[in-house]
Design goal:
The longest helix is centred in the C-terminal third of the chain and has 31 residues, at 469-499. Among the domains are: 1-103; 521-594, no CATH class. α6 runs antiparallel to α7 and α25 packs antiparallel against α26. It is mostly helical. The chain has helices at residues 2-21, 27-44, 51-75, 81-102, 107-119, 123-136, 141-153, 158-171, 176-202, 214-217, 220-232, 236-246, 253-266, 271-280, 294-318, 322-337, 343-362, 370-380, 384-397, 402-415, 420-430, 437-450, 453-464, 469-499, 507-518, 525-539, 544-555, 564-574, 578-591. The protein contains 29 helices and no strands. 76% of the residues lie in helices and 0% in strands. InterPro entries: HAT, TPR-like_helical_dom_sf, Utp6, UTP6_C, UTP6_N. One of its GO terms (cellular component) is Pwp2p-containing subcomplex of 90S preribosome. GO terms for molecular function: snoRNA binding.
């Protein structure tokens, strides 16, 4: 091992001598580099090597390169790069190779090597790195795309990029991203050749010695890629993504028309197609003379939106599905949210949206989320009757949805409906009891604000009987708080006593009772101890904060400090796992006055 390390250090001597000779590094710095490099080399030759050691060595060498670059700029010395930088770059490539041979699965390590090659001008090495990496990781489409892009952008080799994409498609024949990037690459290559030809023609040069394939220049090869891609991936969204890529290039009008024709012929059963075709109408040219005034611009925008809606209307006639109506509603909603100072346009947009929402609902094809938007619009426009009607209709359409019931009940409460009490019962009958907590909370809020104390208490008692633990616990804590608010300490104490043995019990139930007791003019310490003891019966094995609060209570003006040691002993006995350590550290901080 020592011989290998010594040999590697000796191999560095010529470049270090050059660094010292030309004045980039001092003799002392050269000695420091040798010492550090020797230590790093020895780490790479241990029996058990770490990836971090390789990374540290690579980073050290890169830091030297960066320092050389700065000092060259400072003293304006530009010579002997082959004798100074090149050996360091070769050594870094060698260390990267050794690391990637040992940790072949670490993609980030491979990509770090690629990034280094790009930064330090060893682009010839990039192809070798990618080739080796792809042999080990052919299952990762992103790496194939990166390799092909590197060939095209860094090495200006469209042939190599094409070859890599074709190899990638053998491994990933149905990968959309690979096809999209391959399609883009062929368009870029075509654009580049067309520009080269135009420049040569402008210079009146003889094109005889240059080869410009007519198939590539005319976009025939791009069409072949498109046909192959859409033959394997028959999805409207994918076809549209290719059309959007083609639209970036100004010479693809014929290709775009062909893709549009294909989309309208073969993908009309997909709502994405109709959505795309409708939104294209927004970009259609308008009447130029009308656009001088705000009203003229608003009129032009309204005409465009009307044309979009005509396409959507054709879509819902041809494809009467929830996804189609969702696209239509989403478009109208997006346009309605756009700000405009022209009141007429604002009203037309709202009227259009309300009409579409109503028709989608009538066909039972309106998504759950859009009922909220519908209700907001009706409430903001003052249509209380319409909002109440929609709220009721939503609960019939999505009778098992907690969010729909909550939204509808909130709307009816806001409107002061007389049927809210009955509707709460209907809601709790239809929804899954495990998800019903938000409805119980809403019912309690409504009852407290609108019903008599007797009726509110009846709501609480129904909630206490729930078989769902989350509901029962929430109702106990809320019932105790309400009892104190309406009947004072005595009623709260009575409620606590009646519920203290009925499990499950939430921690907040006990904490609230402790707070109520401490709010009294003369709190009783025996009562506080009772509440703490009952809480610790439920949560004493895991809640370290509860034990600490009990100790602090005994240290207070009402407590007996001599009880603290017993409580501490019990806490250490009952607490489990990590809560023991947390309690110990918090108790220590408390004793030292830090809490």
């Amino acid at each position: 091992m020592a011989e290998i390390v010594q040999q590697r250090i000796e191999d560095r001597i010529p470049e270090l001598e050059q660094l010292e000779r030309v004045g980039l590094f001092t003799k002392k710095e050269v000695k420091s580099i040798i010492k550090r490099a020797t230590a790093l080399e020895y780490k790479l030759h241990r029996l058990i090597v770490n990836k971090e050691d390789f990374i540290a060595y690579i980073q050290y060498e890169i830091n030297i390169l960066e320092l050389i670059k700065k000092r060259r700029a400072h003293i304006r010395y530009k010579f002997k790069r082959e004798e100074i930088e090149f050996p360091i770059i070769q050594r870094i490539n060698s260390i990267f190779k050794r690391a990637t041979n040992k940790w072949k699965d670490d993609v980030q390590l491979w990509l770090s090597h690629v990034a280094f090659c790009k930064k330090w001008g060893t682009k010839g090495q990039i192809s070798k790195v990618f080739s080796t990496m792809l042999a080990i990781h052919p299952d990762k489409p992103a790496l194939w795309i990166m390799a092909a892009k590197s060939e095209l952008e860094d090495r200006d080799s469209s042939e190599s990029a094409r070859h890599l994409f074709l190899r990638a498609l053998r491994f990933h024949p149905n990968n959309k991203k690979v096809y999209q990037e391959y399609f883009r690459m062929e368009l870029l290559h075509c654009e580049k050749l067309r520009k080269q030809k135009q420049e040569l023609e402008r210079a009146a040069m003889d094109l005889g010695e240059y080869e410009f394939s007519p198939e590539i220049l005319s976009g025939k090869l791009v069409e072949v890629v498109y046909r192959d891609a859409t033959g394997k991936i028959k999805e409207a969204a994918f076809v549209i993504s290719l059309l959007n890529i083609a639209a970036i290039f100004d010479f693809t009008k014929q290709l775009q028309d062909s893709i549009l024709q294909d989309l309208q012929t073969n993908y009309t059963e997909d709502s994405v197609t109709w959505d795309f075709m409708a939104k294209r109408e927004l970009d259609a040219p308008g009447a130029g003379e009308e656009l001088q005034s705000a009203k003229g611009r608003a009129s032009d925008i309204n005409r465009r939106e009307e044309r979009c809606c005509q396409v959507y209307e054709e879509g819902v006639k041809s494809l009467n599905t929830e996804s189609m109506w969702t696209c239509y509603v989403a478009f109208c909603l997006e346009r309605q949210k756009r700000k405009t100072n022209v009141q007429e346009l604002k009203e037309q947009r709202q009227e259009r949206l309300l009409g579409v929402l109503h028709r989608a609902h009538d066909g039972s094809l309106l998504k759950e989320d859009y009922y909220k938007n519908w209700l907001q619009i009706l409430l903001s426009s003052g249509d209380a009757e319409g909002a109440a009607s929609v709220a009721m209709a939503a609960t019939q359409r999505y009778s098992q949805s907690v969010s729909v019931w909550s939204l509808s009940l909130q709307t009816l409460i806001q409107l002061g409906s007389a049927d809210v009490g009955k509707l709460f019962q209907d809601a709790l009958t239809h929804v899954d009891p495990k998800e019903s907590l938000p409805l119980w909370q809403l019912q309690v809020q409504w009852s407290v604000a609108n019903q008599s104390p007797e009726e509110t208490e009846a709501v609480f008692k129904r909630g206490l009987l729930s078989a769902v633990p989350a509901v029962a616990m929430e109702m106990k804590a809320a019932y105790l708080d309400w009892s104190h608010t309406t009947g004072g300490y005595k009623k709260a104490r009575k409620t606590f006593t009646s519920l203290q043995e009925i499990r499950p019990l939430p921690k907040s139930f006990f904490i609230r009772m402790i707070e109520i007791e401490k709010q009294q003019e003369t709190p009783k310490m025996n009562n506080l101890r009772d509440y703490y003891e009952r809480a610790l019966q439920e949560f004493g094995s895991s809640d370290d904060d509860l034990w600490l609060a009990y100790i602090q209570e005994e240290l207070g003006p009402l407590g007996q400090p001599q009880n603290c040691s017993k409580i501490h002993w019990r806490a250490m006995k009952f607490l489990e796992g990590e809560s023991v350590e947390r309690f110990t550290s918090k108790y220590t901080l408390h004793q030292t006055g830090h809490i």
